[in-house]
Amino acid sequence: MNHFTYRQNQLYCEDVAVQKIAAAVGTPFYLYSHATLIRHLKAFRDAFVKIDHLVCFSAKANTNFAILKLFADRGCGLDIVSGGELYRGLKAGFAPERIVYSGVGKRVGEIDDALKAGILMFNLESVDELKLIDQRAGKLNQRARVAIRVNPDVDPKTHPYISTGLKKNKFGINTEAAIEGYRLAARLAHVDVVGIDCHIGSQITEAGPFEEALQSVKALLLRIKSETGIDIKYIDMGGGLGITYGDESPPSLNEYAKAFMQNIEGMAVTLILEPGRVLVGNAGILVTRALYNKDGQDKRFIIVDAGMNDLLRPTLYDAFHAIEPVVRKKASKTVADVVGPICESGDFLAVDRRLDEVNSGDLLAVMSTGAYGFVMSSNYCSRPRVAEVMVNDDQFHVVKQRETYADLVRGESLPPFLDD
Ligand code: LLP
Q1: Both 82 and 189 in a single domain?
Q2: DSSP character for 246?
Q3: Which ligand 1 atom is the nearest neighbour of the CA of 149?
């Protein structure tokens, strides 16, 4: 459920007409609904209310400061994968004791910052990393709370680029090696072993793979206890729950929660979840303006002012995003590719899409772009990154200014040998 609805043929975000925002801030821009974000967080947490749990929003899905602040203010935790996400998270007010740090390539400086901040747990992805964290914690006179990310070899049946729990993936450590990892961790002087971590992939639309992964984690937990004596306090099952972009029907939050709860009941552990997409995906849209219609030899093209640099998902994953008119007219239908201004054939938002006839100047809403939208945008072709706007009831606020041309060259300098 989200708060993007039509009233008298005009697309509204809560109580603000999207057209009005476009007139004020120009296009393209990302638009987020405050009420939808709050509702999604609440619904997610409510689904787990019967068990001891901690929801850590996966920052990578959307690091807009206003969104982070909104979640932090409600006592949510944060899942980070970089020093930059730690910096943003702390600035937005997340309690360090609710921050978990995943990722295969943590650098020394990033580890040190997280140790100094006193985060809840490092999710370790290799034995090398475990040794380094022990060393850094010793040096800084800190203790590092750690979990090992295990790779349960479960097929999440999603796009190969966003599957992470298979043997062939770079993530985590396989079960046997993980036991060795736990043995080693237990002997290290500056490490406290507190958890087991697992994340099998993203945009998962069935509950089965989550349950399978949890069963594998649970079996490992029991083995760790009996073989090493370590008491695990946290089971972190990562993120991954899919959303409806088009015709997907992911499990409801209750079905998803049940997959975990029925396997964890009675265990003295806290379940950590790292949802990203499911909290923010349907809480955001990308608003773009049609520039031209063009009839190619084989195809019709609608050329819009947002490109693959603004929304990479369609070309990177062949992802489907519905495209809706911001103002509905009694238009005939057309079939066209919706493409951006970038000089690549991969620069599309939709291919062979049936939509209402679009005239130049019309506004279009690219739906369900609140997750992995702005965060994956770039300055390719020297295109300033777009504005981000948040609506709350009948108010809207630019929560990130559109970049300027001056922003594009900030930080660049000429070497002396070019300076004549
Ligand atoms: N935890 C870990 C360790 C992760 O790697 C991820 C996502 C999440 C949590 C959150 O997963 P979610 O609940 O959002 O599925 N750019 C891709 C998605 C990449 C996901 C990477 N990891 C896309 O646009 O579909």
Answers
A1: yes
A2: S
A3: 3
